[in-house]
Amino acid sequence: MFLQRYLAPVLLLTVQIYKARSCHEFTDLDLSDAIIGTDVKVNLLLYTRENATCATLLSHANLSTHPHFNLSRPSIFVIHGYRPTGSPPVWLRDLTEVLLNRSDSNIIVVDWNHGAANVNYFKSVENTHKTADNLTAFIKAMKDNGASLSSIHMIGISLGAHISGFVGANLNGAIGRITGLDPAGPTFTGKPPDARLDPTDAQFVDVLHTDIDSLGFRKPLGHIDFYPNGGTDQPGCPKTILSGGSYLKCDHQRSVFLFLESLNQRCVSRAFPCSSYEEFLDGNCINCDRFGAAGCPIFGYDITAWKDVLLELYQTKVYFTTNEQSPFCRTNYKVEVMIWNKKVRWGYLTVKLYGDGGEEAVATIDHKQLEFKKYTVTSLLGQFDKEISSVKKVSLKFSTGNVLKPTYKLRILRVRLTSLEQKHRPLCRYDVLLEENKEVTFKPISCEESNF
């Protein structure tokens, strides 16, 4: 009894120490390592539902030594980008957790921090090819041991997106899917397809662009390319250099957080095909007929539901907008306004939707001054900050932004709101008088198709 009492804590401590030693962590370097420069060393950290919080370091030489590594399951490779300070990515644990929640897969974090950590960005770019060669050899070993290349999904962030492309090209495009999250732009812009990510690198390539005017790649790279908020200046990110490092990385890093939210399924972001962001904001690109019954594609992890039609279209460029913080997704309505003022009116419109219990959603249509003409339908895209499942009331506010000029009135003959997300009947209201900068609230009614 004496020995049992005192040996039990010792044994428990021994087990905990062994467990701690057997769990492998992402390489944590610091700025001094980046200043000196690092050579390529690739660690492959395996997470599965059996070891969701305790990574196993995979052997490149002997895949059979890892009981959790079941090659009959799909495999998802997560490949980070440039690490100028050597620190681990802040999003890494969250991404592995939500991927495992959605899919019973082998989640393989590609830790190439030795190689990515370097104040000399051009050296890190050079190291992407060495990292890709390392991964190619590992995936070939997986194939030799029974894995299907079509069941492999590579998620590459920044430089990691191009590494995914190099691996895919090495394997003749046989990989099932590559997701590029804001692929790096510097040194890759203007390069031919074999020197960057492109649609032929996998059976399906989906790409998100969030920082095309700085760290990201501007032009389309996949079968479908998403441009949230036009691909630049993400809402909630700092606008000036006075904010420090966040100003440089926030837009670029937002790509990961948007993809994370698509995995969480808190809400969805529907994207619309368009020739430009301006045309999208003008409401000229809300036709989704080309995608069939599924409608316009929803951004993120589940985009494969549109895979067949997107492959037929080959390259599709789509836009959507987001909120400043999570939940990022917005709800879209077509807003049609007909006035009976004698003279043309120019201005902006704010629309609010009210649900049960005081729930409220707002759409401010102010990307440019809108033109309203007598007996002419002005079609607008209203992007609301949340979804209201059952709209009870609506409010409108008209403004011109002119401080020194007289105030105007907008005499609305009819306003019509059509949800682009739900199959609800459009909502209407007739004969509404809007005085400038004054909000008017009313109960909408179901539109009658015979009206106007």
Automatic annotation (TrEMBL):
One of its GO terms (cellular component) is plasma membrane. One of its GO terms (biological process) is phosphatidic acid biosynthetic process. Keywords: Calcium, Cell membrane, Disulfide bond, Glycoprotein, Hydrolase, Lipid degradation, Lipid metabolism, Membrane, Metal-binding, Secreted, Signal. Belongs to the AB hydrolase superfamily. Lipase family. It catalyses: 1-hexadecanoyl-2-(9Z-octadecenoyl)-sn-glycero-3-phosphate + H2O = 2-(9Z-octadecenoyl)-sn-glycero-3-phosphate + hexadecanoate + H(+). It comes from Salarias fasciatus. The gene is lipia. Residues 38-328 form the Lipase domain. This is Lipase domain-containing protein. It is a peripheral membrane protein. The keyword Plastid does not apply. GO terms for molecular function: carboxylic ester hydrolase activity; heparin binding; metal ion binding; phospholipase activity. It is found in: Cell membrane; Secreted. Coiled coil: none annotated. Ca(2+) binds at R196, D198, D201. Its main location: membrane. InterPro entries: AB_hydrolase_fold, Lipase, Lipase_LIPH, Lipase_N, TAG_lipase. The active site is at S158 (nucleophile), D182 (charge relay system), H252 (charge relay system). It holds the Pfam family Lipase. Hydrolyzes specifically phosphatidic acid (PA) to produce 2-acyl lysophosphatidic acid (LPA; a potent bioactive lipid mediator) and fatty acid. Does not hydrolyze other phospholipids, like phosphatidylserine (PS), phosphatidylcholine (PC) and phosphatidylethanolamine (PE) or triacylglycerol (TG).
